[in-house]
Design a protein that fits this description.
The structure holds 2 protein chains of 2 kinds.
Chain A (H helix, E strand, L loop, with lengths): L1 H25 L15 E2 L1 H6 L4 E5 L3 H6 L6 E2 L5 H9 L7 E5 L7 H12 L5 E4 L2 H9 L1
Parallel strand pairs in A: 1-5, 2-3, 2-4, 4-5
Chain B lengths: L1 H17 L4 E2 L3 E4 L7 E9 L6 E8 L4 E5 L3 E2 L4 E9 L5 E11 L6 E10 L3 E4 L2 E5 L7 E7 L8 E5 L4 E9 L2 E8 L6 E9 L6 E8 L6
Parallel strand pairs in B: 2-9, 11-17
Antiparallel strand pairs in B: 1-3, 3-7, 4-6, 4-8, 5-7, 8-9, 10-12, 12-15, 13-16, 14-15, 16-17
Classes of the chains: A alpha/beta, B mainly beta.
Chain lengths: 142, 219
């Protein structure tokens, strides 16, 4: 009786596992393996404040959102016009300056992507992603 | 002893088939736009195999660069349709994964996440995009490497500096690779130059930056 119960449980578990295994095999090349932002790359509004004037704020949101409102002194650098905006940013950046990139919310990958490209393409050190994005800055400053 | 298992499995199958929900042809679409394309458009087709209508409550994309549209708000029983997701490529490169979340009034599975995977070819990979010297540094040349993307053929590139204070020299390394040597005349003054990199027979222009910077700010 007991072994039968165990067998039934195992059969049910196997049945439950089968679709998952099937999907993992069938879609093995289609899974998004995007990793989360590393904690060391994230910075809070309060932490960024402690850096004083040694920070360049980078707004990774689309042009119209930047035009509507942005962190005072922030530069617009989005991927819609990356080739055009990057030289403008690099003309302002100085060695030793920290860069804080933000976009509109936590669910948006834009700031992470812009930060990644700044590190990879311009080989800039000290590029951070603002935790909570534009909304977090608004909450602390307005 | 096998009866309970069969009954359980049957009840699951029956309940799954009875519920009203959209059946998606595919929830992941992979697109391969050309370098000239400004947008990539994915079509997510669906069908309502149930016996009651399904209504869309919301359709929203994960980022501002993607828009999504439904053809209609209600899908009658047996009805078909599609959601169109348009991804604005801009200056993005590589593999871009954007999602569209569809919310319906289905009894179960009210939220469906549609994934648009776009593989954008990169004509030129320029590394680094910035070369700089600190004031007073020796004005030695610094190199920028340009690699041609695997789907492209570029035999020559033309590099021009916006400032005569920097000189550039292009060296063809073969196998679709170029080396640009950038050298300032001197490093006494803080100056900047935009280097325009243009592949032969291409309208697309790429940029890099050369600068003489202040000394680092020490905190």
């Amino acid at each position: 009786m007991r072994s039968s119960l165990v067998r039934q449980v195992l059969i049910l578990l196997a049945l439950a596992l089968a679709p998952g295994v099937g999907e993992a095999v069938y879609f093995r090349h289609r899974i998004s393996w995007q990793s989360a932002v590393l904690p060391s790359e994230l910075v809070t509004v309060d932490q960024a404040r402690t850096w004083g004037g040694n920070v360049i704020w980078v707004d990774a949101r689309p042009d119209e959102e930047f035009a509507s409102d942005h962190v005072p002194g922030a530069l617009s650098l989005n991927e819609d016009r990356w080739n055009e905006l990057l030289p403008q940013f690099l003309a302002v950046w100085s060695p030793g300056t920290k860069v804080v990139v933000y976009c509109s919310s936590l669910s948006c990958n834009t700031s992470r992507e812009v930060a990644r490209r700044l590190r990879r393409e311009a080989q800039l050190p000290d590029v951070f992603v603002l935790e909570g994005g534009w909304e977090a800055w608004l909450k602390k400053n307005r | 002893m096998k009866t309970p298992i069969v009954a359980f499995a049957l009840s699951i199958i029956i309940s799954l088939s009875a519920r009203a929900e959209l059946k998606w042809e595919q929830t992941t679409v992979e697109l391969h736009p050309t370098a000239a394309d400004k947008q990539a458009v994915g079509h997510f087709k669906y069908q309502n195999p149930g016996k009651t209508p399904v209504h869309f409550k919301s359709v929203h994309a994960s980022c501002g660069c993607t828009t999504a549209q439904t053809q209609k708000d209600e899908v009658p029983p047996g009805g078909t349709g599609e959601i169109t997701a348009t991804f604005n490529i801009g200056d993005r490169t590589g593999t871009q994964v954007k999602t569209v979340t569809v919310e319906t009034d289905e009894a179960t599975n009210q939220k469906t996440v549609l994934t648009l995977r776009t593989i954008i070819p990169e004509q030129l990979e320029i590394n680094p995009r910035l070369v700089f010297w600190k004031q007073g540094d020796k004005p030695d040349p610094k190199a920028i490497t340009v690699k041609v993307g695997k789907d492209f053929t570029v035999k020559h590139i033309k590099v021009t500096s916006s400032s005569p204070d920097f000189q550039t020299k292009v060296e063809e390394k073969g196998n679709g690779e170029f080396k640009i040597d950038v050298q300032p005349q001197e490093t006494k003054n803080v100056i900047a130059s935009t280097l325009t990199i243009q592949p032969e027979d291409s309208q697309k222009v790429f940029y890099a930056t050369a600068r003489i910077t202040n000394s680092p700010v020490v905190q």
